[in-house]
Amino acid sequence: MKTRILEPAANAHNAQLLIKSLLLSGPRLAPDKEIVYGDKIRYNYLTLRERICRLANVLSNAGIGAGDTVAVMDWDSHRYLEAYFAVPMIGAVLHHVNIRLSTDQIAYTMQHAEDDLVLVHDDFVAIAEHIAPQLPSVKGYLQLTDDDSPVSTTLPGPGEYESLLGDASPAYNFPDFDENSIATTFYTTGTTGNPKGVYYSHRQLVLHTLGMTHTLASQDGQPLLRSDDVYMPMTPMFHVHAWGIPYVATMMGVKQVYPGRYVPDNIVRLFRDEGVTFSHGVPAVLQMIVNCDEARDTDLSSWKMLTGGSAPTAGLSRQMTERGIQFYNAYGMSESCPILSMVHLSAEERALPAEQQIHARIRSGMPIAMVDMRIIDPDGNDVPHDGEAMGEVVVRAPWLTRGYYKEPEKSEELWQGGWMHTGDVGSIDSRGILQLRDRIKDVIKTGGEWISSLTLENLISQHPAVAEVAVIGIPDPRWDERPCALVVAAADKVVDSAMIKAHLQQFVDQGELNKWAIPEQVNIVAEIPKTSVGKINKKLIREQLS
């Protein structure tokens, strides 16, 4: 194939895709739009840019430079947003510490990442003091406080965040460097072993931001984020860059509201008082939001919601629809930065009554721009796109992680055959719409048949007395595995095993469900275990039941 490459002018700028470029347009387009942190602080985009420069100077004065790693242990805050930019813009690596892991796991991730400096909120100072002897690479701690004075600590300086920013210069000349330089890292937990470190370059984050902006802002079938919207995350900022949307919001110059620690009533108050119009979160968090006291008397109909982690159950979907929340499901993973696909409603689907749109809204969606997606059988062969045939979802995109930090064998397994293996089972229809069926490890294999735990969860959730449900496979000497359901009753409702089985029988009678899919064991429980980011923790459920 013939290609043509032209030589640039000798003095032409060799532009690199760097995170600092995402900060250019917001202050230009919307200098007076606000960054809000709970009920504590608010400032505009010009101040945001100035504070990022001040933080860069503080970091440089603390001896942090290119290639060093700066960890953050904080709630969702304006400070975290400032670190999203200042740390990678000086050439350092931002380590998003998962503050919901166990203390031992937090220590492991910080050891493994070889952190040099830690930004630590007062709420996590005790944890930081406990694990500090295990972190020889850490040279100091920058303390973050929401009160007039920080808590007392034995951690070595350089000092308190706001005091140091106040003394720092408001100007910083951010350098150019290779766009393939690592910008961020964080750790994802699996079913076995220690958390695995994933990492992303400046180039990958910029391309993901551009792809997400196109997806959220340009399509009538996905009308989630425009310049006059007000954004508030409900996915922790330590979790896959809060799905990358703080970068999108900052580039667009929209008003941003950060809630701090997630307290459902406080989040609803911020939604109402700050005029929030767009958020994103996992179903477990959304369930708490729509059911909290503050939500009962609050009009939620102006809220647009991006859902992910898993599709909302039919029960939650109906609740959100009844409250007027416009939700769109998306699919991604820690290794994919994260968004791979998102619901796109056709003109015909948008014209349907809201109740009739639910089925379309809870699908896994179409691959977004620049994502190439296949489903394959165990031999690596393509599976037909007929909406029925199932296979593992494998993907390519410019922003996927290149591997796991310091784990070459697991990295090779992730990228077997030149495609990133998601570990998810799905089908794709003739329109290119993905529907996840289950995680490979969560599919229930019974009597030679595969049963989707997600399908069972969705059907059980439609019972009016069910608030939450989780389904796993448990060993069975005759059938290999059998489904087992954990059910949480809705408030002021009574539910038992017989009611759930009778409810599922109607779907068997209608031909929607195999009779072998009805769980023999249905446990009514007070709560269902969750992971650190609010997903159902099926690993822990299996351990408990075993």
Strand order of the largest sheet: 7-6-5-3-4-8-9
CATH superfamily of the largest domain: ANL, N-terminal domain
Counted beta strands: 25
What CATH first level of the largest domain would be assigned? Alpha Beta
**Rg of Cα set:** 24 Å
Please describe the biggest sheet, giving its number of strands, its sense, and whether it closes into a barrel. 7 strands, mixed
Low-confidence stretches are none
Estimate percent helicity: 25-40%
**Secondary structure category:** alpha/beta
Query: What value does the average pLDDT take?
Result: 93
Measured by DSSP, the beta-strand proportion falls in 15-25%
End-to-end Cα distance, whole Å, is: 59 Å
Q: Work out the count of structural domains.
A: 3
**What overall form do the CA principal axes indicate?**
globular
Task: Give an overview of the whole structure.
The protein is α/β, with parallel strands linked by helices and 546 residues long. It has 3 domains: 153 residues, Rossmann fold (3-Layer(aba) Sandwich), CATH 3.40.50.980; 177 residues, Rossmann fold (3-Layer(aba) Sandwich); 102 residues, GMP Synthetase, Chain A, domain 3. The chain has 18 helices and 25 strands. The protein has a 7-stranded mixed sheet, with helices on both faces. A hairpin with a 7-residue loop joins strand 8 and strand 9. Helix 2 crosses helix 3, helix 2 packs across helix 6 and helix 7 crosses helix 8. The termini are far apart. The model has no long low-confidence stretch (mean pLDDT 93).
